[in-house]
Amino acid sequence: MPMYVVGHKIPDSDSICGAIALAYLKNQIGEEAIAARLGEPSPETAFILERFGFEAPMYKEHYAGEQVYIVDHSELTQAPDDIAEATIVGIVDHHKLGDLTTSTPLECWIRPVGCSNTVIKMMYDFYNVEIPKDIAGIMMCAILSDTVIFKSPTCTTADIKCVEALAEIAGIEDYKALGMDMFKVKSAVEGTPVRDLVMRDFKDFNMNGNLVGIGQLEVIDLSVFDQVKAELEADIAALKEEGKRHSVLLLLTDIMKEGSEVLVVSDDADLTERAYGKASENGRVWLDGVLSRKKQVVPPLQEAFA
């Protein structure tokens, strides 16, 4: 029986590119694997896949009775809805350890690096498997995306070295220029439905029994949101009520200014002040230097809920 390699709900580039790269590796070492996804690729991910000649992995919603290898998270809220009825055979991730549990032993590769594809590159090295040119390309792009072209505080020396090695395999001379092309795709928001923008990179977290949704939109100039910011605020308020969430935060991240404006709706009016030491005004707060949801947004927020 094959294993299905799948990332989180509302998949990002790391989740989808990682599923493809890890499924290929598993097949090369004699473990039958199929790459899958839990949602539609983002515009950035679609750009990466097209650039290196890939189709999106198969869309598969149900995994009861299947073997599953989880990529880019270990959170119950981000896993398939029927994950409790599946057998988790492995996890590869770069986030905090979440609340997924297993009934049998599993393979687990979790490293404090900027991207799951960095960890997958380490797995290729461990198994001494050659990385094909096209897979090296999508892995490289996923790392550039997650590390914000090395600007993110999550970026490590390992991420940089992996990008350099993967770029050489893929035949990409100017990988930073390709990274900027990816972020230009991310910045093209005009004409996109507001709900699609809010959900483009959105994750739910269980914080001490409170459901908290955090979305992030990374662009090269925040002025692209000037005409739609009020609509974004209205939509996250609706999303909060629809999902019975305690709070919803939407990070509008400017990768050039290296900071984020956070739009927030919450049952706790003092949430951002307790978490980040800055009070929100009319549901907005600027957090200078904040680029990473994983490292700079989620941990202090969880402490505020402790």
Automatic annotation (TrEMBL):
It catalyses: diphosphate + H2O = 2 phosphate + H(+). The keyword Cytoplasm does not apply. GO terms for cellular component: cytoplasm. The keyword Nucleotide-binding does not apply. Residues 179-305 form the DHHA2 domain. SUPFAM superfamilies: DHH phosphoesterases (SSF64182). GO terms for molecular function: inorganic diphosphate phosphatase activity; metal ion binding. Keywords: Hydrolase, Manganese, Metal-binding. It is an enzyme of class 3 (hydrolase). Its cofactor is Mn(2+). Its EC number is 3.6.1.1. PANTHER family: BNIP - RELATED, MANGANESE-DEPENDENT INORGANIC PYROPHOSPHATASE-RELATED. This is inorganic diphosphatase.
